[in-house]
Amino acid sequence: MPTTIKAYGAEFSDAPLKELEIKRRELNPKDVKIKIEYCGVCHSDIHTVRNDWGGSKYPVVPCHEIIGTVEAIGDDVKDFKVGQTVGVGCMVDSCRTCPSCQDDLEQYCEQGSVGTYNGNDKHLGGHTFGGYSQQIVVDEHFVLNIPENLDIKATAPLLCAGITTWSPLSHWNVKRGDKVGVVGLGGLGHMGIKFANALGAHVVMITRSKDKAQDAKDLGAHEVLISTDDKQMQEHANSFDFLLNTIPVKHDMNPYLGLLKRDKTMVLVGAIEPLEPLHGASLILNRKRVAGSLIGGIKETQEMLDFCGKHNITCDVEMINIQNINEAYDRVTSSDVKYRFVIDMESLK
Amino acid sequence: MPTTIKAYGAEFSDAPLKELEIKRRELNPKDVKIKIEYCGVCHSDIHTVRNDWGGSKYPVVPCHEIIGTVEAIGDDVKDFKVGQTVGVGCMVDSCRTCPSCQDDLEQYCEQGSVGTYNGNDKHLGGHTFGGYSQQIVVDEHFVLNIPENLDIKATAPLLCAGITTWSPLSHWNVKRGDKVGVVGLGGLGHMGIKFANALGAHVVMITRSKDKAQDAKDLGAHEVLISTDDKQMQEHANSFDFLLNTIPVKHDMNPYLGLLKRDKTMVLVGAIEPLEPLHGASLILNRKRVAGSLIGGIKETQEMLDFCGKHNITCDVEMINIQNINEAYDRVTSSDVKYRFVIDMESLK
């Protein structure tokens, strides 16, 4: 029978997060039971708690950037052992049989992947609960190995902000010598800069805010392009090999498309909402492309983590206790974080 | 010195087309002098005559779908001979040295290709004049060979409507077995169907109008999908390998993007104007892409013509005399043509 554990969630959209007792499934043969140690705070946690996108199921126990220690493993688990540091990202299940799953792209599962929270729980019924909790039980396919050399509390946001920016950079084959623009400097953008830099690209931070220039350079940007400066934008016209657009809200894509070389692509990873009108000529006149990209598959998430281990890449984080989560949400909403809050889950006890 | 010849143009945006005397350049060593026999009527001719896009230079002598016979050649012309049937499309010059020109993509010339009409004439100064004329003189690089087996009057629109649809189908490698949707059935769409069919694809005509279903099938569509029928659209969701979007005006791309498989592309070739708001999720949720494509390079235009010769493909045309051009413009504007008017230029004399 499922055991009851302590978690931290929201019962209604307008209720603050508070302590809850929730059920956790017992170990199946392929399951890994993880003691949760660190939780990254993603903007989508806030959207879900506040039901901004509609469809939230309460109580919401957020967090899909989970770092912990393996406490127990099922009889058939092969790739993990007790005591190991592991991660769980945005998904805990998928059909495993559709073409997307077969291509290691579980995030595009044709049956719909199961979100780490607010997904449909196939084991206990109801919906899934995320990382603001003492423990989580996950099929080993969806558990990630965290390289030992990294500062583990700063690895939590790799599981969402990291893979969301890594996946398009990897899929579109960003490489040494490419001129890559990262549009928007937040939780996603700061990882985009680090990855593009480590991949050998010439990285240009593209932002409306001059105040972010020094930070962008400290993170690894080689240049900063102020998007509200028409002269600068004109100087960079038709010169980029790739644009990673991390802007999380509605915006005008046309000025950014003017920066791309012929046949090159801008990938949206942030704005899951209607955008300002795209001008057909922005694409037609130099055979340009706009694409979207959603987090990443489990295989490429592990590849990203291994790359981080090799290049000693982690996120820039600000540590908080779980009791300060509502204040942190307000600060995320007003872009007042560099660049990701991480909860020390020791504070839940 | 330039000679004066008879042409047919508009002197002001609100003036009807009328007879004009204009100058033609004499033969340079690489020039081909062409007696014009047939002129396709493209919607962009009308936009230019009526200054819909702004920037029209008067008098406008329209037409960039020109078929004629070589009357004379310069001393260094190697690829054409007097008496041969040739074509001239949307461009008569480009810088020939930039990366796009070096890649045989003169339409994306970084200096700007020279349009067959209303472009900047490097030889005579002023602006270029198109096909509503007795003759045209063009550098041989921009002259196309017309396969002898084709009905030549029905080849004129291949030079714009043909290459505009061929280029993306070829560039995105549409092949046997692909499920290809052609959105919009007009001058462009009818060629998209013919080409996609000849390339071996399973062709689906996507249209709002049930009235076009039989015509689409006659042209080579294997299925017709009525885009206003939600049930049909749902049945075809996430099933297309490629979408060729020929809609010439502002529209909502989101329903069409829902038809694409993961990682597949919709290419815009018609709507050079701001579109309805694109929803970020339409791209992000299955890593889909929107791209644009502009006519095609000279090399691929010749490849398209050779393909047409091999597969006996021409356009469906309605022949008119030059004196009926204004009536034809009104009919094009109200989509009352199947599928392209072609002017018999014998009527100019």
Summarize the structure.
The structure is a homodimer of 349-residue chains. The first copy, chain A, is 23% helix and 27% strand.
Topology overview:
2 copies of one chain form a homodimer.
Chain A: E1 3-9, E2 18-24, E3 31-40, H1 43-49, E4 66-73, E5 85-88, E6 91-93, H2 99-102, E7 114-115, E8 135-139, E9 143-145, H3 161-171, E10 179-183, H4 187-198, E11 202-207, H5 213-219, E12 223-226, H6 230-235, E13 240-245, H7 254-257, E14 260-268, H8 280-284, E15 289-292, H9 298-311, E16 317-321, H10 325-333, E17 340-344
Parallel strand pairs in A: 10-11, 10-13, 11-12, 13-14, 14-15, 16-17
Antiparallel strand pairs in A: 1-2, 3-4, 3-8, 3-17, 4-5, 5-9, 6-7
Helix pairs in contact in A: 3-4
How many domains of chain A? The number is: 2
Distance between termini of chain A?
Answer: 23 Å
**How much of the polypeptide of chain A forms β-strand, as a percent range?**
25-35%
Computed over alpha carbons, the radius of gyration of chain A is: 20 Å
Q: What average pLDDT do the residues of chain A reach? A: 95
Order of helices and strands of chain A: EEEHEEEHEEEHEHEHEHEHEHEHEHE
Largest sheet of chain A: 7 strands, mixed
Could you state the CATH homologous superfamily of the largest domain in chain A?
A: Medium-chain alcohol dehydrogenases, catalytic domain
Shape of chain A: globular
Count of strand segments of chain A: 17
| Alpha-beta classification of chain A | alpha/beta
Low-pLDDT residue spans of chain A: none
